[in-house]
Amino acid sequence: MTSTRERAVTEQAQAVASTTRLIAATLDELMNSSDRGDALREAGIAALEAALLIATASDRARQDRSGGQEAIRLAREALASARAAVVATTCAVRALHSAGRHDAAPPVPPS
User: Fold this and answer.
1) Is a pLDDT exceeding 80 seen at residue 8?
2) Which parts of 1-111 fold into alpha helices (H)?
3) What is the Cα–Cα distance from 31 to 16, expressed in whole angstroms?
4) How far is CA 6 from CA 14, 29, 83, in A?
5) Cα separation, 64 vs 58, whole angstroms
6) Quick check: 84 and 41 in contact, CB under 8 A?
7) What is the rounded CA–CA span in Å between residue 17 and residue 62?
């Protein structure tokens, strides 16, 4: 007979696995159908990639009791994806801010 704790851990692992599959499917769809030139979409893709890598690293760390080298590698990749999301979002904010200034600027009279 399994304990309540063991059942809870199993249920949590199943929920994480389900969420990981959903993130992976969404990421795959976005990478194959998105305009990769749009900074906000690129930021979203990088953020989803970071989330997927974090979930995968967490799962590997839980499974691997021998030092977790694979989990460390995945966590480092997640960090790189998170940084990419921040950079892409920063670029998008700057572009949107610049476009907003151009839209709000009075027209320049012809010479």
Assistant:
1) yes
2) 4-33, 39-63, 69-104
3) 22
4) 12, 35, 36
5) 10
6) no
7) 13
Tell whether the model's pLDDT for residue 59 goes beyond 90.
no
More confident residue, 92 or 105: 92
- Any idea where the domains of the chain sit in the sequence? 8-104
The pLDDT of residue 77: 97
Q: Is 87 exposed, middle or buried (0-12, 13-18, 19+ CB in 10 A)?
A: middle
CA distance 37 to 65: 41
Token pair belonging to 77: 């990749």
Which pTM value belongs to this model? Answer: 0.76
* Tens-place pLDDT, residues 28-48: 998 888 677 888 999 999 999
CA 22 to chain centre: 12
